[in-house]
Every structure is written in C-alpha cells, then in structure tokens.
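My main concern about presentation is that the manuscript never shows what a single data entry looks like. An entry of this sort, consisting of the sequence and the corresponding backbone structure tokens, reads as follows:
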Amino acid sequence: MTSRPTGLLLLGTSHVGKSTCAHDLGNATEWPVISTDKLGRHPGRPWTGVPDAVTEFYLRLTDATIHWFLRVHHENMRPFIRETIKAAREAGRGFILEGSALRPEYLSDWEIGEALVICLHAESDALRERIEKGSAHSQQSDQTKRAIDKFVERSIRENEALVASANKQGIRLVDVTDLADLERLTHELTLHLAGTSER
C-alpha cells in the first residue's frame, strides 16, 4: 500500500471481525464508521432475545434458502449503500464502511473513488467456534441451538461465496482465522489511513 486512501470498505461474513477492526480504526483516525447493519437489517443472529419469527425463519427454511434470502437482502441494499458512499465522499473526509452487505461483485456500481477495499475471511471451524462462543450456544435451549447452527451454516456459505467473489474481482483477502492477524491488519491500516509508515 502506498498512497493514502480516501476511505475504507471492510467486507466479510458475520464474526470475522469487521466491526471490531472498523471501531478501532475509527478511534485511531477519527473517521466516521458506518455499518450496513444500520441501513437495513436482515433476520440476524437468532439469539439475544430475538422475536420468535426470527427463530422460526432459521428453523423452517433449508440452508440453501436461508443463504439465498441473505443475498436477496444484499441486492435490495445496493442503492442504499450507493447513496451512503456518495454522501460520505461528498462530506470531504475519510470514512470507514463495514458490513456483510458489501459484496465484491457490487463494487463497480458504487463509485468508491480511492477508497481501499479489504475482504476478511476465516476458516469454517474458526467461524463456528466464534459464533458458538458469542451466542453462548451450550447454554441455549435445544430450539435456539438449532437456529444458531443454521446461522453458522449461513455464515460459512457466505464466507465461501465472498472469498470466491473477492478473488474474481481482484480484491485483497485477509485471513483472520488467527485473531492476531486481525490485530496486525488493524495496526497496518491505522498507519496507512493516517498517511504514515513504520520505520
């Protein structure tokens, strides 16, 4: 990485560390952090007291259908994300946009200018472990456990799809299976977004 980018887009499926990385970078750079989750939310994590309809969504549908619905949601989000990026660029300062709705195949539609794009990914077992830990899987009811298992499968399918698309689009992929690699990336990006380098 050489010239200072005007923004950063962090791509990746659930639980790869996008929000953590974006939050730390926002604090370091004082750039605003925007999450696509705030623009429009798909049935998300089936724990933490969600409505019964969310649990039913995961329990009643096949893994393939659940992932298909996610991609339809992302397609519907495209114009909102385009306007968000446009507004952020017109504000005349750097910005950080993170979220699973940032699909590599949509980037050409969004006029991102000189923004940097990075796609985070992790091995399937690591994703499963993080989601089970974050959801307190072992302490949940059998029904909620089944819903969480479906969420895990959705996340793994999406992880694989994003990696394939990022490779096709020539987007930088960063493996954050080891969370130490996420910390190293955050440090690297902090220096780059600030326009400095380590000596």
In short: The longest helix spans residues 63-90.
